[in-house]
Amino acid sequence: MACGFFIATRYSAGMRVAAIIVAAGRGERAGGSLPKQLQPLGGKPVYQWSVDAFSHHDRIEQIVLVVPNGDEDAYAAATNPNVKIVAGRETRTGSVKAGLDACALSDRDLVMIHDAARPGLSQETISALIEALEHADAAAPALVVSDALKRQTGSRLSNVSRENLYRVQTPQVFKLGAITAALSASNDLVDDLAAIEAQDGMVALIDGSETLAKITYPDDLNRLESLLMPHPPAPRFGTGFDVHAFEPGQEVVLCGVRIPHDQKLAGHSDADVAWHALTDAILGAAALGDIGDHFPPSDPQWKGAASEVFLKHAVELVAGAGWTVSSCDLTIICEAPKVKPHREAMREETARIIGLDTSAISVKATTTEGLGFTGRREGIAAQASAVLTPLQTNS
C-alpha cells in the first residue's frame, strides 16, 4: 500500500484542512437531461451531498467547488455562499489545479480532493483520512477487489490475481504544497494519487465504502439512492398567504385569468394575489425562501411582470432541488368579483404553468361575511398550500 516515503512529517490536530469538490465534467454517460452532479438524489443535487458532508465536519475550514466553465453563477446561486466556486478546465487534472489555486491555506496545510459524483461521503471517512496523513504523504479510501478478474485476449480468457488489488475512491488527502508541486508536471492522471506515487511517495489506504461508489452510468444513481436513502424522503408541505389592495381599474388578475371588475389590484407586478400565495407555498415547501427573496419589489425589472414568471421559477427551483409539485390548493378571499364562474379557467391556467393535470389543482373562494379588510371590499386575500414529492431519478 505504499511506495517509499516522500515527506516525513506528522500532522498535528491543529493542521488546517481544505476540501476541493470536482464537479466540472458533463457526465454524459450517466444519462438524463442534466449532468450527473446536478441530478436529484434524495431531494438535492448529487454534488450537494459532498458539499454538506464537508460543511458539517469541524476540521474543514474551506470548501472549493470546481464547476463547468461558464456555469459559475448558476452554481453560486444554488450553493452556500461560504463555498468558493471556481471554473474548471478541459481535463480533470486541470480542474484539480484550478481548485488548488483557489485554496487559501498554506503549503503545509492539508487538502482533500473529492469527486462530486461520489455522494456517499461520511464524517467518519473524512476523519480517518486526516488521521492517516500523520504517517503517509497521501491517503485515500479503498475497497479490496473481491470479484474474480479475467483478462480477455481475442476469444480467450485468463485469470488475473486479485492479491493486493484495490478499488480506490475519493476523497484523497494530501499536503497542499506537495500535491500542488506534484501535479505541476502532470496534465492528465487517472487520479491524484498518481502524482504522489510518481514522486515515490507513501500512500495510506483506509477502509472505503460502497456508498462512496462513483455515479457513471444511469443505474448507478438508483443504486446509490437505495444505499443512501433506503426510505424515500417524505413529501413536503408548504403554505403561502398574500393580500393586495384595490385601486382604480377595470379588471383583476387571478391565477392568470383576467376578470372584469370595477377596480384592479395594486402591486409592483400584475398583482395576481392567488399565484403569489401559491409561489410562496411551493418555495416554502422546499425551504427556498419566499417570492420577495427571488423577485424583490424594489427591482424595476419586475414592474408589471406577469406572475406566471414567478410561479414557473418556483417550480423550476424546486425541481433543481429534487422535488416536483404534486398538488396544490388555493383559497381566494373576497366579496367581489365572483370567482366561481372563472374557477375552471383558473385551474387550467395553474395546471398549465405547473405541469399538472387539473385534477391536482383546487381553486376555491370564500368571503369574510363583511368583516375585515376583504369584507370592506378594500382588496383580495389568498392562501395556498402545495405538496412536493421527490423527483423520480430512473430516467
Notes on the protein architecture:
This protein is an alpha/beta fold. It has two domains: 17-228, Alpha-Beta Complex (Spore Coat Polysaccharide Biosynthesis Protein SpsA, Chain A), CATH 3.90.550.10; 236-390, 2-C-methyl-D-erythritol 2,4-cyclodiphosphate synthase (60s Ribosomal Protein L30, Chain: A). Helices cover 27% and strands 28% of the residues. The strands form five sheets. Strands 1, 4, 5, 6, 7, 10, 11 and 12 form an eight-stranded mixed sheet that branches. The two termini are 39 Å apart.
Q: Could you name the CATH class of the largest domain? A: Alpha Beta
Any guess at the CATH architecture of the largest domain? Alpha-Beta Complex
The CATH homologous superfamily of the largest domain is called Spore Coat Polysaccharide Biosynthesis Protein SpsA, Chain A
Q: Total domains, how many?
A: 2
Bin the strand percentage.
25-35%
Helix content: 25-40%
What composes the largest sheet?
8 strands, mixed
Distance between the termini: 39 Å
Give the averaged pLDDT, no decimals: 89
Described by the principal axes of the CA atoms, the overall outline is: elongated
Stated plainly, the CATH topology of the largest domain is called Spore Coat Polysaccharide Biosynthesis Protein SpsA, Chain A
- Classify the secondary structure makeup into a structural class: alpha/beta
**Segments where pLDDT lies below 50 for 5+ residues?**
1-12
Task: Explain briefly what this protein structure is.
The chain has 395 residues and is α/β, with parallel strands linked by helices. The chain has twelve helices and 19 strands.
